[in-house]
Amino acid sequence: MPFLPVARLSDLPDGTLLGVITAAGERVCLVNQGGEIHALGNNCTHQEFPISDGLLLPNGRIECAWHGAIFDCRTGAARRLPATDPLPVYAVKVENGQILVGDRLS
Known about the structure:
By secondary structure, the protein is mainly β. The protein has a single domain (4-104), classed as Rieske [2Fe-2S] iron-sulphur domain (Rieske Iron-sulfur Protein), CATH 2.102.10. The chain is 0% helix and 45% strand. The strands form 2 sheets. Strands 1-10-9-4-3-2 form a 6-stranded antiparallel beta sheet, with no helix packed on it. It has a 4-stranded antiparallel beta sheet with strand order 5-6-7-8, with no helix packed on it.
């Protein structure tokens, strides 16, 4: 899949999460952690709750708002139960103020 725009960088201030849907229909959670943009699957692997409704913690981890599972925003790794499976990670880049999402990496 080529890189396609999903949001403007101005839609994702530092320290925030944003749920988007790619042209392929995939639900992705964009993360701005200290100016670094990441893209992860937007469904908690525990019970399918939107990760973008959660909380971005200062250590670069995302806490699911439903049951408190925690994931690493860089790798998607599950860091706290009840989730055990990682979130998928997508290729992401920023060009001309646009956030573009590409292929699923994991």
